[in-house]
Amino acid sequence: MIRGRDLIVRFGGVTALDLPALQVEAGESVGIRGPNGSGKSTLLRALALLQPLTSGTIEGVPPRGRTVLVHQRPYFFRGTARDNVAYALSLGKRPADEADVWLERLGASHLANRVADTLSGGERRRVALARALAVSPEVLLLDEPFAALDVAGTTSVNEALAAFEGTLLIAAPDLAAGNVARVIELDAS
Fold this sequence. Notes:
This protein is an alpha/beta fold. The protein has a single domain (2-185), classed as P-loop containing nucleotide triphosphate hydrolases (Rossmann fold). The chain has helices at 40-47, 81-91, 98-105, 121-134, 151-163; strands at residues 2-11, 14-24, 29-33, 55-59, 67-70, 139-143, 167-172, 182-185. It has a 5-stranded parallel sheet, with helices on both faces. It has a 3-stranded antiparallel sheet with strand order 2-1-4, with helices on one face. A hairpin with a 2-residue loop joins strand 1 (2-11) and strand 2. The longest helix is centred in the last third of the chain and has 14 residues, at 121-134. The two termini are 27 Å apart.
């Protein structure tokens, strides 16, 4: 179980996140909804231990590698889409040939040999999610995973997320495309 109390992140005089309490059960799928500037991305970065809190506490988050954040604009290494998924697999000492399986699950097998830097926004999201799911995280944090996806991409992502057995947090201004059991509303400061 992930618990947070009095979560505050400030950048100078601007409060980017102000959340009095957070509780997410193991295996739960939770949506984080709010307008731009409400702290959705900041909350995910804090949960991924990439953004220090100004004040407050977070407990129960598995360490990096067991908690994976897929950013709004996913980062890629040099090389192909397959290389990027295979690299993540190598960190977990898993066979690189599993990369093709994960790309196929996300409807992205046709992108396997494409240089990652040439992928469109929607293609990048599907490859990044394949890379994240390939390492079998306990907690998966997704920042606007449905943005820039076409119908086929949205379907592939929803199917992959429905099969995910860990704890899932999806941040988006609109969660119409996501399958979440509960929604946390954030307000713009």
